[in-house]
Amino acid sequence: MDIFLETTMEKAKKQYRGAQAPIACIEAVKGAVQKPYQQGIEKERQLFQSLWATGQPQAQQYAFFSERNVGKWTHPSGGRWDTVAPKPVHTAAVIGLGTMGRGIVTSLAKAHIPVVALEQDAQQLEIGKKAVNGLLEREAEKLIKQGLAPGSTLASVRFTLDFADLRDADLVIEAVYENMELKKEIFRKLTSVCKPDAFLCTNTSGLNIDEIASVTKNPHLVIGTHFFSPANIMKLLEVVRGHHTSLTTIATAMNLGKTLGKVSVLVGNCPSFVGNRLLSPYLDQASYLLEEGCYPEDVDKALEDFGFAMGPFRMMDLAGLDIGWRSRMERGLAGNKVPLGTPARQREGKRYCPLADLLCENGRLGQKTGKGWYQYEKLGGRIAQPDPWVKDFLQKYRNTHQIKQRPATPEMILECCLYALVNEGFHVLEDGIASGPEDIDVIYNNGYGWPKYRGGPMYYASTVGLTKVLDVLDKYYKENPDVPSMKPAFLLKKLAMVGEPPLKEWRTQVGNPDSKL
Ligand SMILES: CCCCCCCC(=O)CC(=O)SCCNC(=O)CCNC(=O)[C@H](O)C(C)(C)COP(=O)(O)OP(=O)(O)OC[C@H]1O[C@@H](n2cnc3c(N)ncnc32)[C@H](O)[C@@H]1OP(=O)(O)O
Ligand SMILES: NC(=O)C1=CN([C@@H]2O[C@H](COP(=O)(O)OP(=O)(O)OC[C@H]3O[C@@H](n4cnc5c(N)ncnc54)[C@H](O)[C@@H]3O)[C@@H](O)[C@H]2O)C=CC1
Hints:
By secondary structure, the chain is an alpha/beta fold. The chain contains 22 helices and ten strands. It has helices at about 5-15, 25-35, 40-55, 60-70, 100-110, 120-145, 150-155, 180-195, 210-215, 245-260, 275-290, 295-305, 310-320, 320-330, 355-360, 390-400, 410-430, 435-445, 455-465, 465-480, 490-495, 505-510, and strands spanning about 90-95, 115-120, 155-160, 170-175, 200, 220-225, 235-240, 265, 345, 350. Helix 3 (about 40-55) packs antiparallel against helix 4 (about 60-70), helix 5 (about 100-110) crosses helix 6 (about 120-145) and helix 12 packs across helix 17 (about 410-430). It is globular. The two termini are about 40 Å apart. 3-keto-decanoyl-COA (ZOZ) binds near residues 138, 229, 316 and 323.
């Protein structure tokens, strides 16, 4: 067996929990590597449907086949993008070489697409160049191990400060700070320097695609291509359709994901899209647990024992705490836009936890600054160690605000965090932002280190039992009416009421929402 196949098999075994993984899954992974899409997706869909016919498929089988068939379950009212030919991407450009940009450049180069990489000033360009070169060297090492010559398999990367150098790019991916005015400024420049038919993509983690598109001459060529951190590793590409985005643009972005070896999932345009929209109440719950007596390592341990690759605090340190902070400042929830006299732990009448903001104000942005919820061995280090500073800071904070302490068992941690996440998943389905529960599961399995052997959050809820999820949410919400994200979603109540139909039938219970897809 060659090394590439061997590595992929090892990864599959790890993701699907080794011996528990059904042989069929492992064999299918092997087949998929050797003969990609040779037998056609239709055959797999039939296989998956026959699995459903025998009852609820095993979580691993469900996760595997959902991933291979994502986007094929329904043909959203927005149009059949999958019947339209994608445009080829011969050259690409990436703007901003921070945490995300450097990984995106690496993914493109690995997929044989030459890239122009642009930064804002010479210093940032130098830092970005060093980081990209480091990642490319690592890729080259892997190719050498496989007996391949890196020169012929990694495309070239050209570094620049000049927007004029983007004039030949077929597709541009913007990955600058999460700030609407800055993104608009960049898109104004792009629309004037790029080819008239260039696709203009934004890697925003949650800003309005339509507002970004509004400053361009061709809003139908604008689309969200939301990568996940580390962008050269994580397999998910959330493709966000704007109001004016054309079917060709969607088809091209979806196809780009496939070319990069990623799983593309089409979602609608709403604040934070799908993945991060579910993440927000999950992270809120994790932060409330800290206010009430837990430490980051307690919460992370419970979720990592559940199977997550990283608990919420290690994950935030990886992504960078400043992203959420910038977004909250833009929304007037943090920073100097907060009206004077606003209580520290309340915003717009709802419970608010300012802990992450306070960490950012202390320069603790996560791995990139060597300190966040944990401390790291160096700037950009990856080994998370509990930090006495954080412990002390949390104790002082709890005393200052006289917060009632609540001992939390691992079960309570799981219920609070996971049910909050799942509840938002039902809202997303109600709003027509994702085409079905399978898409949400694929997003979590591939973008957030959710344990595939548990199927995905929506599948997991179906195995816990929707009535149980509903009861726990109901109880929590009654005790905490200032946390509206825990108010059970209408669709969850409806599904529990009609006798908890299997997941494959949930879509019919949603009715016909105004699909944003
Ligand atoms: C305030 C926040 C609010 C949200 C803000 C917006 C954010 C967004 O819009 C969306 C996001 O991206 S959210 C973050 C999503 N990412 C995750 O949840 C990551 C979860 N972690 C994992 O999957 C694995 O631990 C991971 C894959 C990282 C590592 O896997 P393993 O544990 O199996 O480790 P290895 O097998 O040793 O490594 C595999 C490859 O990953 C590289 N790597 C490991 N740790 C890393 C790290 N900390 N940073 C960067 N790269 C890392 C590692 O080098 C290896 O790469 P190769 O050697 O090239 O294969
Ligand atoms: N960090 C994460 O986990 C994820 C972030 N995102 C999104 O990706 C975008 C970038 O985030 P990060 O890479 O984390 O930020 P970052 O702060 O690590 O990097 C941003 C980079 O943009 C550069 N930049 C700023 N203004 C520029 C300009 N005018 N021209 C060229 N370059 C400029 C900066 O110098 C910096 O290197 C944001 O929209 C963020 O919401 C999306 C998914 C995950």
